[in-house]
Amino acid sequence: MTVVKAKAPCPCRPPPAARPRLETLMARPHPGRTGGSRRADVLKVREGWQADVGMASLSGRLERALRSHLLDPTANDPRLSAALALGREIYALYEAGADYDAPLRQLGVLVGRPIHGFAVRDGFGSVGPDIFARRQLVAWDQPPSDVTEEEMLEMVDGVCGVTSADELQRDYWLACLQVCTGDRKIRDLIFFPGDYFGDGDDARLMSSSEILETALRAGGRPR
User: Half-sphere exposure of 136 toward its Cβ, with a 13 Å CA cutoff?
Assistant: First the structure.
């Protein structure tokens, strides 16, 4: 795949007509700058203008551009089916107000580390049982470091919503990008550029290539 370094508007920013809505959302307080509620709001706003950036024509692009373990770190995990079943059981028990300690312990044994109840409480309010279960399978402290620049660019596109992805994939790609660019603040660069640059301008336009170049430079790994 040939990387085209065109200075198109950042895929994380809507077209000008939609920008006031996004600026209003970006002005809301956000806890810890982790991208929580404001990130969800940004993604919701983006749903209204995805058609304008040709989402349909990009279907399957990530599948062609990323190696399978980068596209979805859980897809080929032999523990996936068992983890999904346990995740759904945990959520059903939690929703019913019943004791879910037993399946939670089983899930911890399956993934090789204990999972605490607060993970269930936090997950229940933000993601479904399948995403919760898949998250437990990912070695978040050991993201791959052999990602190519082309793959990193595709990950930026995926995080920004130019190509279709789920919440786990976006979080995983952010973890990979932090390691591979060396820029631990790349999440802010994408979602809160005003905080990243310190000028409060969250409406700035950047292409995916410019985002990646900025992160690589900040991490001491310029192109």
Answer: 33
